[in-house]
Every structure is written in structure tokens, then in C-alpha cells.
Write a structure and sequence with these properties.
With 291 residues, the chain is mainly α. The protein is built from 13 helices and two strands, in the order αββαααααααααααα. A two-stranded antiparallel ribbon has the order 1-2.
């Protein structure tokens, strides 16, 4: 990709032994550095990394591991033996490039979930299997949170008759979210959301505020030992840790256990709801933070 060449050349110069020398306050100073991560949402990171932009287009649809579609739905914890690495990734790219026919190249591409060698692969020390972190906002705020919020809301309203959508909207409207959260006040929930079979629609910041406020809005109607609420509570704790300003290694171990227990409960409480690709990407978050 020609548009990236000047950037790649500059980064490689910066990471070389000579580095970049510039004048600072009339004196030459030499700087060294390296590109350690490319941050974007799932489609953008997959595209720049040379992976399939959608997991539905690949037999192995995760850019972090080689789990198949079926394995992704059953995986509650990261499996070190299935992780992608630079050596195997380079071999897969070479196999696609050397395919005798376009049809064979397309087959290999789908099997390995790879479109082509990434432009970023020419950057010194940059590994596309390690340096494309999963985006928490895309996975959680625009994926798992609205999905499970909707599932739990339907359970509370349709199955248990604990409260109505209209009553929840009244609570949403009248709740005091505090000065810092005023601009992120959640929007009312569509009264026929279940008939539409769509997830709750909010902006990312609104979704996070609504999700963590729900126990305060209608908590008196919900039984704390209900497994559906426990699954939801695990998700709130996962999101809190995933978005924390500072964590240590022990926190990532807790996060790993929370994700495992959440996925187990989710499958038990909502057997008709499959584990989505974004839920699978979540299992890679603890090791991603540790890196």
C-alpha cells in the first residue's frame, strides 16, 4: 500500500540503531522508538492486519487464535496452544501467495482467515498476531452489553413480569446520574423492542451508563441469586475491569475467571443464544492486557 510507505519508512528509521536525529533547543538529539500496536475497531484492525474483516467469511475468524467457528462458541478461556504466532502466520501467508490457482488461494484464505500479508508486516518488530489489540468499545459497548442487556430485560419483563418497559423508562427518565454523566443520559427504550427482535439501541457511553445503572433503577424487583442476574453482574464486573485506568497482573487473572464464569452462565441461562465472535474475542483480553 503506497500511501503507507512514508510512515513505514519513518517508523523503521526510528527503530533502527541510528534512530532519528533532530535539533532541540539548538542541540542535536537522537530519538529511538517502535510501533507497538495498531488500535482500531474489529473490521479496521482485521483489514490493516490482512485478516478477514468479518468472522463469517472465514473458517478461523479470530485474529488472535486459530479456533474454528465451532471451537469459538465453546471456548470460555484462552487456549495458549491455539494462539496465532508470527512463524505460523507467515507460513499461511506464503501458502496463500504461492497457491497454484485463484480458487486454491481463496480456499486457503478462508481456512486460515487471512486475506493477504499485511502492509504493517514490513515494520521492524511489529507482529500482526500480537500487536492488533481487540477494541473494548467495539466488543463490549457496541456488542456484548446491548445484547445481554436486551436478553436480561426480556427475561425480566416477559418471563418474570418483574416490571414493564414503560416502568423502566420512567425510572431512566427520573434517575439522577450525576453531573459527570449528564451528557450520557440513556435514551428511552423502544416499547416494542421485543417484537422488533433487536438489541437496545444506545450510544456507547449511554450503553455503559444504562447497563451499570440498571441494578439501581429496578434492583428491588430482581432476585440477587437469579443466575440471569448473576451472568449480567459478571458482565458488569468484566466491563469495569476492562475499562479501568490501571490494573495489575492479579486483576487480569480475576478477569480471566470472570469471563469464564460469565460465558458458562450465559450459555446456561440463554441456551438459544450462541456465543458470538465478540464474546469469543473477550477471552483474549486478559493476555492482551498483560502484554
Amino acid at each position: 500500500m503506497k500511501v503507507m510507505k512514508p510512515f513505514i519508512d519513518d517508523i523503521n528509521q526510528l527503530s533502527s540503531d541510528t534512530g532519528w536525529t533532530i535539533m532541540v533547543a539548538g542541540r542535536p538529539r537522537t530519538f529511538h522508538g517502535a510501533l507497538i500496536a495498531f488500535v482500531g475497531d474489529t473490521p479496521a484492525s482485521c483489514w490493516v492486519g490482512g485478516f478477514k474483516e468479518s468472522s463469517s467469511f472465514a473458517f478461523r475468524g479470530c485474529r488472535s487464535c486459530l479456533a474454528t467457528r465451532e471451537q469459538m462458541t465453546d471456548m470460555n478461556k484462552e487456549s495458549p496452544g491455539s494462539l496465532r504466532n508470527k512463524l505460523s502466520h507467515d507460513r499461511s501467508c506464503a501458502l496463500i501467495d504461492a497457491a497454484a490457482t485463484p480458487q486454491l488461494a481463496k480456499h486457503y484464505s478462508k481456512v486460515y482467515g487471512i486475506n493477504s500479508t499485511s502492509t504493517l508486516a514490513s515494520i521492524h518488530h511489529f507482529d500482526v498476531t500480537q500487536c492488533l489489540p481487540h477494541d473494548v468499545m467495539h466488543i463490549l459497548f457496541e456488542g456484548i452489553l446491548p445484547l445481554e442487556f436486551t436478553l436480561f430485560l426480556q427475561y425480566c419483563v416477559k418471563e418474570k413480569n418483574w416490571f414493564t418497559v414503560a416502568h423502566l423508562n420512567s425510572r431512566i427518565s427520573g434517575f439522577q446520574y450525576g453531573y459527570m454523566n449528564g451528557k450520557d443520559k440513556p435514551s428511552p427504550i423502544n416499547s416494542d423492542i421485543f417484537a422488533q427482535k433487536k438489541n437496545v439501541k444506545q450510544q456507547a457511553c449511554q450503553m455503559w451508563l444504562l447497563a451499570r445503572s440498571l441494578p439501581f433503577l429496578v434492583g428491588e424487583y430482581i432476585k440477587e441469586d437469579d443466575p440471569h442476574f448473576q451472568s449480567y453482574s459478571y458482565l458488569l464486573r468484566i466491563t469495569s475491569l476492562a475499562t479501568a485506568y490501571e490494573v495489575d497482573v492479579s486483576d487480569t487473572c480475576v478477569l480471566e475467571d470472570l469471563i469464564h464464569e460469565h460465558h458458562r452462565l450465559l450459555k446456561m441461562c440463554y441456551p438459544e443464544q450462541s456465543i458470538t465472535p465478540k464474546m469469543h474475542f473477550l477471552v483474549h483480553l486478559p493476555s492482551q492486557i498483560r502484554r
